[in-house]
Amino acid sequence: MKMTFRWYGADSDSVTLQQIRQIPGMTGLMGVLDDKAAGEVWTEEEIKAYMDEVHAAGLACEVIESVNVHEDIKMGLPTRDQYIENYRTTIRNLAKYGVKVIVYNFMPVFDWLRTDLARVIPEDGSNSLYFDEAELGDMGPLEIVKSTIENSNGFTLPGWEPKRLAELETTLERYKSITPEDLRANYKYFLEGIIPTCEECGVVMACHPDDPAWPIFGLPRIAHSQEDFDKIVKLYDSPCNTLCLCTGSLGSDPENDIPSIIRHFGGMGRIGAMHVRNIKYLGKHKFRESAHLSSAGDLDLFEIMKAVYESCPDTYIRPDHGRMIWGETGRPGYGLYDRALGATYLNGLWEAIEKMSR
Ligand code: DNO
Questions:
Q1: pLDDT (tens digit per residue) in 86-109
Q2: Radius of gyration, CA atoms only, the chain
């Protein structure tokens, strides 16, 4: 298991590389070029500048996240071929700088979605990301986007780039005639376009699950259960077509048995990366993100790490979103302290599992 940390770049992260380097056991990053819009080529110069900075700080960066897929690809528009070509160029460019895994998603319009970015946890006064479907209904898509941007402390959030959101209304309208089957067919077309390139240059694609793990605003969503991912891995049968197993996204639906899903896809060699965090269920389609510790939420992190150990021990892991604690402010979900505690806890579980398995 390689422990990593998400970092948005010196200009758009409240956390520094030096701080990340000092987290025990931290080997590298899941990096991102935060200002790239979906569909744009990530140029060699941009990638090199990011990598040089990361390497100079003594960290590796073999995983890149959020190479976002243009909506025209998801909607199957004729303009998709150009965007797929751009995606191929980005894959080649990233491979030249040592990238082995690309984490992306195939969610229409929205990446992850929450109704509150800083819900106070009454027990200890910290705050975390929170979701309540009832609040979502009251707000509607435009309002939720507006409030997400307004409450993100000035940081852009993954998948919420302003350029993409400017056309929100038109895009939502267009999706009305797209069924989950259409979306899957468009996904297949995309994979047929890019996986041969991945095979050529040794890069694995890892699809992030829908977050939360059910359809929202009537949009088609096809990546939130074992059954969904069974279909996805079959859309293009290649070891380069994998999933990024995000415990908190899949885990937002209590029906998803995370350790068993890890064993299922890990055993097939189809887990390219993992995001590990915990969730506290508060009712149907209502949850908040908790500290990583098993007893703080409803997921069993020991069982999760054990399943990783047994079925995909070499995967990349990052502690996922953290709460805001000790007065820290920053990008919601992406402060330093609680994610560092999360990494330390996961490393502790790992050491115990490893030694007990000898
Ligand atoms: C949320 C992240 C996601 C993830 C993307 C990958 O915090 O886990 O935004 O990076 O879905 O495309």
A1: 999 999 999 999 999 999 999 999
A2: 19
Burial of 314 (0-12, 13-18, 19+ CB in 10 A): exposed
Pocket flag, ligand 1, residue 275 (CB < 6 Å): yes
pLDDT tens digits, one per residue of 175-230: 999 999 999 999 999 999 999 999 999 999 999 999 999 999 999 999 999 999 99
What is the overall mean pLDDT for the chain? Answer: 95
Cα separations in angstroms, 79 against 74, 83, 86, 176, 343: 11, 7, 12, 19, 42
Judge residue 268's burial from the number of C-beta atoms within 10 Å of its C-beta, 0-12 exposed, 13-18 middle, 19 or more buried: middle
User: Residue 244 C-alpha to ligand 1 middle, in angstroms?
Assistant: 10
Closest ligand 1 atom to 275 CA: 8
- Tell how strand 241-246 and strand 204-208 pair up: parallel
pLDDT value of position 158: 63
Q: Which string of DSSP letters, residue by residue, matches 55-68? A: HHTT-EEEEEE--P
CA distance 83 to 157: 22
85 to 46, 237, 295: CA distances (angstroms): 18, 21, 46
Class of domain 2-356: alpha beta
Active site residue 316: no
- Residue from 104, 175, 334, 337 carrying the catalytic annotation: 334
Please tell me if the CB atom of residue 104 comes closer than 6 angstroms to any atom of ligand 1. yes
Domain ranges of the chain: 2-356
Residues sharing a CB contact under 8 Å with residue 204, sequence separation 6 or more, in sequence order = 100, 101, 102, 198, 239, 240, 242, 272
Assess contact for 165 and 144: CB atoms under 8 A: no
Q: Which atom of ligand 1 is nearest to the CA of 6?
A: 10
Give the span between the Cα atoms of 166 and 178, in whole angstroms: 21
pTM of the model: 0.97
The C-alpha atoms of residue 224 and residue 246 are separated, in whole angstroms, by: 10
